[in-house]
Specification:
There is one protein chain. The protein is α/β, with parallel strands linked by helices. It is 48% helix and 7% strand. The chain contains 10 helices and 4 strands; from the N terminus they run H-H-H-E-H-H-E-E-E-H-H-H-H-H. Strands 2-3-1-4 form a 4-stranded mixed sheet.
Length: 251
C-alpha cells in the first residue's frame, strides 16, 4: 500500500514548486525587459500604467513584449509534447534556424549526437542535400525545410515557423505571433550588414570622416530605434542591441 507523503516530503515538493514558479516569473520579466531596446521594470510599469497609446514604450509593451512573452511560455510547454516546425530551405537560413532552436532549448547537439542537423563548425547543414525533413531522436520535434516563398502561406500547416526577418515583414506576419528571436550577440554580429568606409579616407579626410560619423550616429540613435519599433512593431529592429559601432577599429 502506498504510504502517505510525509511533512518533509511535502515541504520539499512545495519548495520545488516555489522555485519553478519563481523561474517562470523571472523568465517572463526578462522577456518584457529585454529586446531590441532594453527597459527597466520601472520604465515598463510606468508606461503600462500610463495607458498612453502615444508612448513608444507602452506600444512596444502592448504590441510586442506581452504577446512575445506569452507566446514564448506557451511555446516551451507545447514543444515538450512534440511539435512540427517549418524553416527556410536555403542553407544559410536553415542553419540559423536550427541554431536558434538549440539556443532556445528546443533541440540539443549533445542529445542528438550524429543526428544533429548542423555541422560541427555551425556553418553547414548535415542532413543531406535532398532531405527536406529532420526529426529529433525522441520524435518530439520535426523540422521541415520549406521554400522561402511558401513559408508564410504554409504557416498553418505547422505548429511553429522560423521566418527570416524580411519574409515575416513582407508576408505581413505581426510581431504578436513571435515566440522567440535570434538575440545572441555573436549570432547577430556574424550575420550583420555593415556600413563600409575607406579606412585611409576616414583617418585622413576630415570631410569624409564627418559624413561617415553623421550616418553612423543616426543609425545608432534612439530616434531611429524608436522609429523602427513603431513602424515595424518589433519585426525589424535597429537599436544598440543589434547595432555595433566599429569606428574604433579605424583609428
Amino acid at each position: 500500500m502506498k504510504q502517505p507523503a510525509t511533512l518533509p516530503t511535502l515541504r520539499r515538493q512545495g519548495a520545488a514548486l516555489t522555485v519553478l514558479a519563481l523561474a517562470v516569473v523571472l523568465a517572463a520579466l526578462a522577456g518584457l525587459c529585454f529586446g531590441s531596446q532594453g527597459y527597466t521594470p520601472l520604465q515598463l510599469w510606468q508606461a503600462w500604467c500610463s495607458g498612453d497609446p502615444q508612448n513608444a514604450v507602452y506600444r512596444v509593451l502592448l504590441h510586442v513584449r506581452w504577446p512575445r512573452t506569452l507566446a514564448g511560455l506557451l511555446a516551451g510547454s507545447a514543444l515538450a509534447d512534440g511539435k512540427s516546425v517549418e524553416v527556410c530551405d536555403d542553407e544559410s537560413n536553415a542553419v540559423r534556424a536550427f541554431n536558434l532552436l538549440e539556443k532556445k532549448g528546443v533541440i540539443s547537439r549533445e542529445t542528438e549526437g550524429d543526428n544533429y542537423p548542423v555541422s560541427a563548425d555551425g556553418e553547414k547543414l548535415a542532413i543531406g542535400e535532398t532531405d527536406k525533413k529532420w526529426t529529433s531522436k525522441d520524435k518530439k520535434v520535426t523540422v521541415t525545410l520549406v521554400a522561402e516563398n511558401l513559408l508564410v502561406s504554409s504557416m498553418g500547416d505547422y505548429d511553429f515557423a522560423l521566418l527570416p526577418c524580411n519574409t515575416a515583414y513582407t508576408g505581413n506576419v505581426s510581431a504578436d505571433k513571435r515566440a522567440a528571436v535570434e538575440d545572441d550577440a555573436a549570432e547577430v554580429a556574424g550575420k550583420a550588414n555593415v556600413i563600409a568606409a575607406r579606412a585611409d579616407d576616414y583617418k585622413n579626410n576630415a570631410a569624409y570622416k564627418a559624413k561617415i560619423d553623421a550616418l553612423t550616429d543616426v543609425m545608432l540613435s534612439k530616434a531611429v530605434a524608436d522609429y523602427f519599433a513603431e513602424k515595424y512593431n518589433g519585426i525589424i529592429t535597429c537599436s544598440d542591441a543589434t547595432q555595433i559601432d566599429l569606428r574604433a577599429e579605424l583609428k
